[in-house]
Amino acid sequence: MSSRSFLEYRAMFALDDRDLDGVSLDCAGGASGFVAEAGAMGVRALAADPLYAHGAAVLAERLSGDLEQGNAMISANADRFVWGWYGSAERRREMRLRARSAFVADIHRRPGAYLAARLPHLPLADGSVDLVLCSHLLFTWADRLDQEWHRAAIMEMSRVSRREVRIFPLVRMGDGEPVPFLDALRADLRAEGLRCAVREVPYEFQRGARHMLTVAKRH
Where is the Methyltransferase type domain positioned along the sequence (predicted)? Predict the structure, then answer.
């Protein structure tokens, strides 16, 4: 489970204050601090992840090991990452630790903001949130999740969103290469009545990962 911060989300998804009007859904949220930090600022947000079914105590216990495992992976593959946005490895670590603490406190205090759910099925009504943010799931794991799964997942996120779905990044985790089926997937989504666009964002950590996919219904 990764503990990305609210500031990282703002950069990864090129979010401004207007984007955060209404209700945002972090899917799959992992141990992100986005919902907790958003709530502290008066921004309405929910998160969905199948791991929430384990309960707050179990998740808190496993987070320390997950953070160290992630840091070890980055150290072992240092050539795949750039540090311009963070400035240093220590600043990144501090951001992740603060986000992790915020997540743990918030899921204990407001468990109803964290939905145990797995794409491509979300326990939410049509158009029940304004913005859906999907970080480091789609495309990141394209070696395990195929084009049809991606289509179903995006259709489901679009179903529950009134406004837009934003997905970051658009490269695979293992080799940092672009996803080969992205163009075909976008064609499938357009055939389903959705608008798709690739936008550059003011964030890069995994080398070459500086674009997101936006998906919205045609009006």
Answer: 108-163
DSSP-assigned beta bridge partners for residue 23: 44
Contact 142, 184 (CB under 8 A): no
Q: Measuring CA to CA, which residue among 126, 115, 116, 111 is closest to residue 157?
A: 126
- Give which of 167, 169, 172, 165 is closest to 192, Cα–Cα: 165
Q: Quote the CA–CA distance of 219 and 65 in Å, as a whole number.
A: 46
3 state DSSP class of 191 = helix
Q: How does 53-81 read in b/e, with b if 16+ C-beta sit within 10 Å? A: eeebeebbeebeebbeeeeeeeeeeeebb
172-193 exposure pattern, b = at least 16 Cβ within 10 A, e = fewer: bbeebebbebbeebbebbeeee
Contact between 85 and 66 (Cβ < 8 Å): no
Question: Phi first, then psi: what are they for 124, rounded to 5°?
Answer: -135, 150
Task: Quick: pLDDT tens for 25-56.
Answer: 999 999 999 999 999 999 999 999 999 999 99
pTM, two decimal places = 0.95
The DSSP letter of residue 16 is -
CA 15 from chain centre, in angstroms, equals 13
Render 64-119 in DSSP notation, one character per residue.
HHHHHHHHHHHHHTGGGB--TTTSSHHHHHHHHHHHHHHHHHHHHH-GGGEE--BT
Q: Which residues contact 139 (CB under 8 A, 6 or more apart)?
A: 150, 167, 169, 170, 171, 172, 179, 182, 213
